[in-house]
Write a structure and sequence with these properties.
The complex is a heterodimer of chains A (about 190) and B (about 150). With about 190 residues, chain A is mainly alpha-helical. In chain A, about 70% of the residues lie in helices and about 0% in strands. Chain A is built from ten helices and no strands. The longest helix of chain A is centred in the first third of the chain and has 23 residues, at about 15-35. Chain A starts with a helix and ends with a helix. Chain B is mainly alpha-helical and about 150 residues long. The longest helix of chain B has 20 residues, at about 100-120. Classes of the chains: A mainly alpha (about 190), B mainly alpha (about 150). At the A-B interface, helix 2, helix 3, helix 6, helix 7 and helix 9 of A face helix 1, helix 3 and helix 4 of B.
Chain lengths: ~190, ~150
């Protein structure tokens, strides 16, 4: 059954089609939410809410405009952003500037004591402004093209590419400048 | 086309370390720079290491989440009247097969007009002043050349 057929069934109140969609799409959705929020509990809440919204708004999905996975990621993205803003974890694009980011970059991993390398990397990742983190995750982990990721984030492709570039530069600089050995990190992560 | 390190850094940052994802228009120039510049090769190596690190960051399992979402209470599907009518007219599960429905809907105003016109005169009377009979009216509407008949 294709996504379109399953969604038609969902529009007609078919719960088995809804369950099939959950099985098919839960993994990328939960991974995206986790990478955005960094918390298992919040990830589960967001994933649950995402699929509830799919059920409620099934008739609003327009297959000719976006694939189901793009639509679901957009719902998840918006829920994550709302959640982050509500809980003030977020540094928005508007408030972010290179000058503001400088102290973050200069903060050394070495100052973070004996934290594990994986945790250090995740921390560096979470310290990225929300739009850079989303852009990097959608393209690197979720496998979306720049155009699809831009549509999910409701920004232009140029803005998305710029956000990815800034995110990668920030992470790379942090790893290099703080003398983090990539080989050690990789060994620890595996 | 000659690329600078700044251009190359921007390309690698935007499109990643895999050369196949770089824009085709600059791919050859990037390869050229890589063959000539050790700094460019080092930058690419750093980017590859970063990609590997990103790939290696683990995501935990969420045991029971799938069944919890599948079994969460779902509100009844409430569709608006407009959605219901549109779905009946243009059923999404059998596009083209129920073509008679929109055709029937398109004929509906005509049918209603005939029925209403048959029952109500709306003030139009056969014996209104000016015309003695409907025959006269039809005769006048027939665009005949009256001069022939008069002379």
């Amino acid at each position: 059954m294709t996504d379109e057929e399953m969604m038609r069934a969902v529009c007609n109140g078919d719960q088995s089609a809804y369950k099939a969609i959950v099985t098919k799409h839960l993994k990328p959705i939960s991974h995206y939410a986790y990478r955005m929020l960094g918390s298992s509990r919040e990830t589960e809440d967001i994933a649950q809410e995402t699929f509830l919204r799919l059920w409620i708004n099934a008739t609003k999905w327009q297959p000719e405009k976006s694939s189901l996975t793009t639509w679901l990621h957009r719902i998840t993205h918006n829920l994550c952003i709302d959640h982050l803003r509500k809980h003030s974890h977020v540094q928005t694009q508007e408030s972010f500037s290179e000058e503001e980011a400088e102290p973050n970059r200069q903060q050394s991993f070495a100052q973070e004591g004996d934290r594990g390398a994986a945790e250090k990397l995740q921390r560096a990742f979470r310290e990225l402004p929300e739009n850079q983190r989303s852009a990097l995750m959608l393209c690197h982990y979720q496998g979306f093209s720049n155009k699809e990721a831009a549509a999910i984030m409701a920004i232009s492709v140029t803005a998305l590419e710029s956000a990815i570039a800034r995110a990668k530069r920030a992470l790379r600089e942090r790893l290099v400048l703080d003398g983090i050995d990539a080989t050690t990190l990789l060994e620890e992560l595996h | 086309m000659k690329l600078t390190m700044t251009d190359f850094t921007e390309i690698v940052d935007r499109y990643g370390a895999a050369s196949e994802s770089w824009p085709a228009s600059v791919r050859a120039a990037c390869q050229q720079l890589l063959s000539e510049d050790a700094l460019a090769r080092e930058l690419l190596q750093q980017q590859r290491r970063l990609d590997m690190l990103l790939d290696a960051v683990p995501v935990p399992e969420f045991p029971g989440l799938e069944s919890r979402i599948q079994n969460q209470p779902l509100p009844p599907c409430s569709r608006s009247l407009v959605d219901t009518v549109l779905e009946w007219l243009f059923p999404s599960n059998a596009p083209g097969k129920q073509f008679w429905r929109p055709a029937m809907a398109a004929c509906l105003p005509l049918v209603v007009g005939i029925v209403v016109g048959n029952f109500f005169s709306f003030g139009i009377s056969n014996e209104s002043p000016g015309f003695d009979y409907w025959d006269d009216e039809l005769y006048m509407l027939s665009l005949n050349d009256y001069t022939e008949n008069l002379f």
